[in-house]
Design a protein that fits this description.
six-stranded antiparallel beta sheet; nine-stranded antiparallel beta sheet; 49% strand; 2 helices; 296 residues; 3% helix; Beta-galactosidase, Chain A, domain 5; mainly beta
Length: 296
């Protein structure tokens, strides 16, 4: 497989993208050379910014049904393992594309095109998704991002020196898991506040923080000891995940905007009945985007 990285840069930042999975591999600011994106480490999390398609998380028993047929589906789908072709390249943007093939049809019986576009402007990076249904019938899918950021930002700082700050005051309840499936139970983690304290304990017991009731479409990762920060915009995304490797004090934080969600223990196998699943008519295209602004 071709693993040559594609680079975009301006006078503020540079980004590298791997055509395998169309995965964002690096975000650096200039002139300090600060690397903001987690660089992968098998001890904690080998990937950097995988794309989740056509499912988010796990399906119950790893399977679903469509039109009476049963299909297997791996964690987070298959797009993050596929080699994308560069379909458009400009000074400030690059678009990567995959389409269905014989291998995808074995696990996902839909004809589709997925375009992932990265665009830089100033000290910001935009990630755009476009899902096109080329089937003769309605297509069911989820899509989302999984970017991991280096936290803390500066050497000598601690993970606990950082916070997530929402644009609005929030009352947030995380959805609880058992055996990697949602139980229907929730736990309050923020009550009429904008600030969620970061700590490794946040991920120790219940692993990912999965939210479906966020009013804000903007949040910041901020340090109490450094002026550096990340502004993260996720307009329209109905679900938000926060994650770091539980129990290992991993020095990163994933901010994950999703159209879709993992499995509940009471899920039915039919994909069209799954919570958060998108239904796209034949010939239509679904679009969404999130944006990262770096304050160096």
């Amino acid at each position: 497989m071709n693993t040559e990285l594609f680079r975009l840069e301006n006078n503020r930042i540079s980004i590298d993208v791997n055509p395998i999975g169309a995965e964002l591999y690096s975000i650096k600011t200039k002139p300090d050379g600060q690397e903001w994106l987690w660089q992968g480490d098998k001890r904690y999390f080998a990937q950097r910014s995988p794309i989740l398609f056509p499912v988010i998380g796990l399906l119950k028993d790893g399977v679903y049904t469509f039109n009476g047929e049963q299909y297997d589906m791996p964690l987070h789908g298959f797009a993050h393992h596929m080699e994308f072709a560069v379909s458009d390249l400009r000074p400030d943007a690059v678009t990567f594309t995959i389409r269905d093939d014989a291998a995808t049809q074995e696990v996902y019986p839909f004809a589709f095109q997925l375009d992932v576009t990265y665009r830089i402007h100033g000290a910001s990076v935009e990630t755009h998704f476009a899902v096109s249904n080329e089937s003769a019938h309605t297509m069911h899918f989820s899509i989302g991002g999984h970017p991991a950021f280096n936290v803390p930002f500066a050497a000598g700082d601690c993970y606990d020196d950082n916070v997530i700050e929402f644009a609005q005051k929030e009352r947030l309840e995380r959805r609880l898991f058992e055996n990697r499936l949602f139980t229907g139970e929730r736990r309050l983690i923020l009550d009429n506040s904008r600030t969620l304290e970061l700590s490794h304990d946040l991920f120790f017991t219940d692993k990912a923080v999965v939210l479906d009731d966020v009013k804000s479409d903007v949040l910041w990762i901020k340090s109490r000891k450094s002026p550096r920060s990340i502004r993260f915009e996720f307009p329209g995304f109905p679900y938000l995940g926060l994650w770091s490797t539980p129990g290992q004090h991993a020095p990163f934080l994933c901010i994950e905007p999703w159209y879709g969600i993992g499995a509940d223990r009471n899920d039915k196998p039919a994909i069209e009945l799954k919570e958060g699943i998108e239904a796209l008519s034949s010939g239509d295209t679904f679009r969404c985007a999130y944006r990262v602004f770096l304050n160096a």
